[in-house]
Design a protein that fits this description.
- This protein is mainly alpha-helical.
- The protein has one domain.
- It is built from two helices and no strands.
- The longest helix is centred in the C-terminal third of the chain and has 12 residues.
- The mean pLDDT is about 85.
Length: about 70
């Protein structure tokens, strides 16, 4: 599934969605009003980008990692 479709599904379900193309974008996002933050990726972005985004979130005050 592509990233745009995943964002659309989230937004249609009442969630807020952000799409990033670089890990440098993550610190500028404001997740302060969220109780839960879920992270997903489409099929085309490289795994290295997904992992870098996770590391960036883990070093922020926003999330406590929970792996499934």
């Amino acid at each position: 599934m592509n990233t745009a479709r995943l964002a659309e599904i989230a937004e249609n379900g009442g969630a807020q969605a952000w799409r990033v193309s670089s890990v440098d974008e993550v610190p500028r996002l404001d997740f302060g009003a969220l109780d839960i933050l879920g992270v997903t990726s489409g099929a085309s972005p490289p795994e290295s980008l997904f992992q870098a985004v996770l590391r960036s979130l883990e070093t922020s005050a926003y999330i406590i990692p929970a792996r499934v």
